[in-house]
Amino acid sequence: MSGPVINLADRRPPPAGDQPAICPCGSWYWVLRSTHERVPEHGALTMRTDGTVSGYAGYPHCQHCGRPWGGTAT
Ligand SMILES: [Zn+2]
Fold it and tell me: How far apart are CA 14 and CA 68, in angstroms?
């Protein structure tokens, strides 16, 4: 084979699921606040058997500044 070989996997950005959500204030830490009367005041998590989070009930707010998560990376 002649010509350059380009490995596309090296040129792709990491999947969005691997990137941490970072608040505009710089904090990586989020707390859940209840969004429904049936959700505990502190929110709740669902987890995989390896301990990673697979889902949550409540809405994430920045632990540092209290800003609600806006759904966009900064
Ligand atoms: Zn913040």
Answer: 25
- For residue 10, give the H/E element and its range: helix 8-11
Q: Rounded to an integer, what is the distance from CA 12 to the centroid of its chain?
A: 19
CA of 6 to the centre of ligand 1 (A): 39
- Whether 15 shows a pLDDT value over 70: the answer reads no
Which structure tokens are listed for 5?
């070989």
Question: What pTM, to 2 d.p., does this model score?
Answer: 0.65
The alpha carbon of 72 and the centre of ligand 1 are apart by a number of angstroms equal to: 13
The residues facing 60 across adjacent strands are 32
What integer is the mean pLDDT of 42-50?
Answer: 92
